């Protein structure tokens, strides 16, 4: 019988080895410390020399000797070429914590780090560092700051995994923030996101004549001078000035904005009503009087051929078209009532581009020589209202007005945060709608049918033309209309996702929920009702719907339950990394 030997424990680098690695690094603009662990602190501190910017001693350091020949804190401080900080343990109670900090300061230590990792039974020679340490870290920082005053440098360390956690530590009284487990949980981009949050805080404070008393950033220079890096870094640039607040709109511009938003909202309501009307008609009477007159055939005549599958196929197209128009209308109402009313240029361009596609798709019907009378009249009646709304809305816009505003995100988000992943899912869904809409429009104007369509109807194109030479143009009209609506809806969702999603944008979240539920629900739900259940045919819709559901679920908390990091003086907000 043979037994496998246990793996050799991982050897920590010696102080001399760690110092050699630090010296080999290029010049850094941030202080890099070295954590020293026993039992021979004095030898390790001397071996490290001046390579790090500061040293931290592990929580087991004793403030007084432990028998003959034991190293004292004063000897350890004397052996160090750099400032020495005591790293506190989360396992210490408040009384022991204060006693050891006091003795460490008497020995000449420069400050403390709050906190080290927590003891963990499964790691007899290690520590557990994770986000759960943050509440205890904040309490310890506040206690030490109250007891020892403003002059003591405090480095926050335990549980710092987000910019919000770093800000909370600074607010509690920390002078600096040390990153450790945060680089694992949040990735190497965390320092940059913390810097962004600090700049945001600085701009917010600069925009007020009297900053809130709880704000502790930037820290006082006296708290960090002892921890400066070896070589003086280039002076940090001053925080970017706050974006100037938009000039107040004139009374005439305000009135134009209100009128334009009202007309655009009316357009959205009319589209939603038209979509609902189309869905109801497709589910009941199937064919309208002018359809019957154009074909020269009734519903009963068509049902007599192909087991009524032709009528069901046409109903499936029209229900899908109605759902697409209804979903667009829901988003148009929100766009008009909120961002356009506020003078946001991105909302104006979203309405203009999406509306241009939606109304222009009407021209694709003419390629087959069939004009839906009711559809044409409704389009001609609604177009002046929509154009008038855009014209008036343009006069009330604030800030930059060019189409480049569509490239600026409404809020920044870490890629792997809920907001970042949710936005990516909605973007995938919107891109699928755009690609699907273009495909359906092209097919509707050329081939009209895909193989799954003919397989469902159990008829070929020649057989459909034999029933009536006008049947294929009528179906092509429905297909092209649905494709145009899907393309327009995809553009609307895409720009709302990129420019409109912000912390606290609850109205947009609900508008997207209603729009997507109606659009995907009608497009997918009608298929089993008419027996058209080809998995290949429905696969793109399934993928888009799943991405939409995932995106709307991920975005609920960032958009509806958190406020993020934002200020009145900054046009771009930021979602919390782990919110």
Task: Give a brief outline of the structure.
With 579 residues, the chain is mainly alpha-helical. 56% of the residues lie in helices and 6% in strands.
Walkthrough of the structure:
56% of the residues lie in helices and 6% in strands. With 579 residues, it is mostly helical. It has a 6-stranded parallel sheet with strand order 1-2-3-4-7-8. The chain has a two-stranded antiparallel sheet with strand order 5-6. The longest helix has 33 residues, at 251-283. The protein starts with 14 loop residues before the first helix and ends in a 5-residue tail after the last strand. The model is unreliable at 1-6, 61-68, 209-246 and 564-571 (pLDDT under 50).
User: How much is the average pLDDT?
Assistant: 82
> How many strands in all?
10
Given the C-alpha coordinates, what overall shape results?
Answer: elongated
Number of helices: 20
The helicity comes to 55-70%
- Counting copies of identical and different chains, the oligomeric state is single chain
Distance between the termini: 53 Å
Largest sheet, order of strands side by side?
1-2-3-4-7-8
Largest sheet: 6 strands, parallel
| Poorly predicted parts | 1-6, 61-68, 209-246, 564-571
- Strand content range: 5-15%
- Provide the succession of SSEs: HEHEHEHEEEHEHEHHHHHHHHEHHHHHHE
SS content category: mainly alpha
- Taking Cα atoms only, what radius of gyration do you get, to the nearest Å? 33 Å
